[in-house]
Amino acid sequence: MKYGNRAPWKRFFYSPASIGVALIVCVLIVRGAWNIHAKALLAQDRLDQAKTELADLQRQKASLSASIEHLSTPSGMEAELREKYHAVKEGESVAVIIDPSADKNATSGQSTTTPPISWWGSVLRMIGL
Question: Is residue 127 part of a domain?
């Protein structure tokens, strides 16, 4: 065996230039794989957001279809008109019930709470002014 003489292909592969090129190629491959991994994570996040939005839209669709079904009946239309516009039928009347204790405070003009006194007002009160 000859120790000092290597095969030409071994000299080429073990040369510093070929090792440097191999390292650069490896770095580029790893960088590309990392970028693809980052894009895959971003795509997964967007997919999760889209699924959540789809579920929200499906719930909203179900709610709206139930409202449409309710409003398509005459009793549903009447109930919605009464609630939204405070409408009454002919011959009906509205009764307003007033709390007597609230009425006394409103007519006398006095409130049950006194306004807070500022620190300057309390000093003047102590002096006697």
Answer: no
Q: What CA dihedral angle connects 13, 19, 20 and 21, to 10 degrees?
A: 50
Distance CA 79, CA 71 (A): 9
Q: In this predicted model, what pLDDT tens digit does every residue of 11-51 receive, in sequence order?
A: 787 889 999 999 999 999 999 999 999 999 999 999 999 99
Q: Select from 89, 107, 87 the least CA-distant residue to 98.
A: 107
Residue 122 lies in a domain: no
**10 within domain boundaries:** yes
pTM of the model: 0.49
How many structural domains does the chain have?
1
Q: Tens digits of per-residue pLDDT, 91-114?
A: 887 777 888 887 565 555 555 566
Q: The tokens of 104 are what? A: 């006394």
Tell whether 36 is covered by a domain.
yes
Contact yes or no for 89/95 (Cβ under 8 A): no
Q: Which domain holds residue 81?
A: 1-89
Residue 13 has, within 13 A of its CA and on its CB side, a CA count of: 5
Which residue is associated with the tokens 């179900």?
Answer: 62
